Amino acid sequence: MVCPARNSLGPETGRGPMDADMLPDGLVVADENGTVVTFNTAAARITGTRPEDALGKHIADALPLEDMEGRRWWVCTDPYGGLSTRTRQPERNLLLAGREILVTASYVRADGPRGPLSKLVVSLRCTDARRRIERGHSDLIATVAHELRSPLTSVKGFTATLLAKWERFTDEQKRLMLETVDADADRVTRLITELLDISRIDAGRLQLNRQVVDMEEAVHRHLRALECNGLPDERFVVVVDGPLPRMWLDADKLDQILGNLLENAVRHGAGTVTIEMRAVSIGSAPGAYGTEITVSDEGPGIPDELLERVFTRFWRGNRRGGTGLGLYIVKGLVQAHAGTIGVDRAECGGARFRFTLPAAMPDVLM
């Protein structure tokens, strides 16, 4: 048994041997006889086998893998007696004691590409992360399908009715139907925009088109729009603590952030919605400053045990309606500006969202 070998992967460019236990994936190495000589900590975690129980065993006994049809994988692949031209086995789902794991194998051959197998290197990965991603994709598709069905049904119904019976309706009825179609088309457009934003945020490809932005004017513009939609102006209170710095931001992304937070406060909160703004220093570097904006309401608030889930996908709390993607996107947009965002309970008991954005002003504009 060669226990020390399980921790060493050979020299690492003059910095000493690399520790196999530092690798995030499971690593199992067998020598020319099929004897396991390396079995790292991640492999032990994934397989449930202790390294001391695997080292020194034949790899077929240490890793009794089967395919989805129950066939023994080592018998099917025969790495030591099979074709000498093979260099690897692509990643695939295999069963180990009835549990799925992802397995990849590489063949290290002595004396050239057709030589005998000197080492068999097997990489193991847990399927839990992949399943979570697949489940997230399935949930996203189901949510999108559900959210699209209602407005598209309305658009189809009203347009078909107008085309078939145009002369039977008064101008006022036609206007009402067309206004409904227009509103539902906007709803579909917003949903598609959310999906594109999520895709770019998750892939790290969100692009910012920065310009000089007046934060106070941006907030008041949103409030005027809400008031035009029938909300009384006395429902909103704006508090500005001192002069605000000039900001170098993506104006459209800022509008999305403010729009989502204000809509969330109006729809799910109650009472007065208070927007507070103040200049803040960011970090310890001299001259690093930004603006902090707080949006709070007087509603029931968010239970403490749910606060950590607010910015996750599909979070709706105990309320129905909406995609549950708005606050997830808000967090992504804030972080794309190198800002921070959090939520807690306001003094009056409602929800309080606070985000901070750095000014990020180029020297030429300061």
TrEMBL record:
The keyword Transferase applies. Residues 143-361 form the Histidine kinase domain. It is found in: Cell membrane. PROSITE patterns: HIS_KIN, PAS. Gene3D superfamilies: 1.10.287.130, Histidine kinase-like ATPase, C-terminal domain, PAS domain. Residues 21-69 form the PAS domain. InterPro entries: HATPase_C_sf, HATPase_dom, His_kinase_dom, HisK_dim/P_dom, HisK_dim/P_sf, PAS, PAS-like_dom_sf, PAS_fold. It catalyses: ATP + protein L-histidine = ADP + protein N-phospho-L-histidine. GO terms for cellular component: plasma membrane. The keyword Transferase applies. It holds the Pfam family HisKA. One of its GO terms (biological process) is regulation of DNA-templated transcription. Keywords: Kinase, Phosphoprotein, Transferase, Two-component regulatory system. It comes from the Bacteria. Its EC number is 2.7.13.3. GO terms for molecular function: phosphorelay sensor kinase activity. SUPFAM superfamilies: ATPase domain of HSP90 chaperone/DNA topoisomerase II/histidine kinase, Homodimeric domain of signal transducing histidine kinase, PYP-like sensor domain (PAS domain). This is histidine kinase. It comes from Embleya scabrispora.
